[in-house]
Amino acid sequence: MYSRSHSCTPSFLSFPPLLFFCETDDMYMLALPNFTIFAQELRNGRKQILKSLQLRQYREVLALDIMKKELKDTRIPNRFHVLDVMGLKASVKVVPSTRGYLLKWIGIKNDDYDS
Fold first, then answer.
1. Three-state DSSP state, 92
2. Whole-angstrom Cα distance, residue 77 to residue 36?
């Protein structure tokens, strides 16, 4: 957005969901309003998906099946939650299959997920 050659004359820049505060020429502070609500809903969806993986007989499920399932306590789309869980390399292994991606619980305890 700004390079070091530009001087930071405005002390406050606002873009609809983000707030940037100009501290010095080299440093900016970023504020995300209502980020805690988003983080709680993301965490709730992640917990539900991982718990359902743990309760399965073989501890694996197709990503498409999770996308069809309705998650409680979250307004974030299921596709976003599935992609989030696919990024947890320490807890979930993603295996491509003929019907889509298969998520396998590999059982490593992670700080990203509180059970």
1. strand
2. 17
